[in-house]
């Protein structure tokens, strides 16, 4: 069984390297696994668009709290993707399955968007200026 796990992991990591959009499908009724976080880290390292899909949403007792908890778990461990899009669905009932493909397309479009160098430079200059002002006020 360990051999199967290793092969599965290697296959997943290869797929992440080849993908434009990484769709992480998780069980909404189970805790986030270390393997899930490893896949997300790999997607971040590879610079891929990420979409998190929570399946079995029909079995979730408190959808609002469950989604908030899922977002918090991911945001606290992987700040680089804070606010990443989440899709909740039920493959068994078909509920919200129609939202998946449009979400993938939106994630790809955001990922493929190019920011002009001048706009990026302006943003960076403003961020540095704000930081400098904070340091000056704080005595640093």
Feature tags:
single chain; 140 residues; alpha/beta; Rossmann fold; 12% strand
Describe the structure.
By secondary structure, the chain is an alpha/beta fold. The protein has one domain: 3-Layer(aba) Sandwich (Rossmann fold), CATH 3.40.50.300. Helix content is 56%, strand content 12%. The chain has a three-stranded parallel β-sheet. Helix 1 runs parallel beside helix 2. The longest helix has 21 residues. It is globular.
Q: Based on CA inertia axes, which overall geometry fits?
A: globular
Number of E-type strands? 3
Query: What's the alpha carbon Rg, rounded to whole Å?
Result: 19 Å
Which percent bin holds the helix content?
A: 55-70%
Q: Indicate the mean pLDDT.
A: 91
Residue runs with pLDDT of under 50 for 5 or more positions: none
Domain tally:
1
Q: Which sequence of SSEs, written as H and E, runs from N to C?
A: HEHEHEHH
- Reported by name, the CATH topology is Rossmann fold
Largest sheet: 3 strands, parallel
Reported CATH architecture: 3-Layer(aba) Sandwich
Number of helices: 5
Distance between the termini: 56 Å
CATH class label: Alpha Beta
Percent of sequence in beta strands: 5-15%
User: What would CATH call the homologous superfamily?
Assistant: P-loop containing nucleotide triphosphate hydrolases
Structural class based on helices, strands and sheet pairing: alpha/beta
What's a concise summary of this model?
The protein has 140 residues and is of the alpha/beta class.
């Amino acid at each position: 069984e360990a051999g199967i796990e290793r092969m599965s992991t290697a296959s997943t990591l290869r797929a992440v390297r080849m993908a434009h959009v990484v769709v992480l499908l998780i069980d909404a009724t189970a805790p986030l696994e270390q393997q899930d976080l490893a896949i997300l880290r790999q997607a971040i390292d590879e610079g891929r668009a990420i979409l998190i899909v929570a399946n079995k949403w029909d079995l979730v007792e408190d959808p609002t709290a469950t989604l908030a908890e899922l977002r918090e778990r991911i945001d606290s461990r992987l700040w680089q993707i804070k606010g990443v899009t989440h899709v909740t669905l039920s493959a068994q009932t078909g509920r919200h399955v129609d939202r998946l493909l449009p979400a993938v397309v939106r994630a790809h479009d955001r990922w493929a968007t190019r920011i002009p160098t001048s706009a990026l430079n302006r943003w960076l200059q403003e961020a540095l200026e704000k930081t400098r002002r904070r340091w000056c006020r704080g005595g640093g």
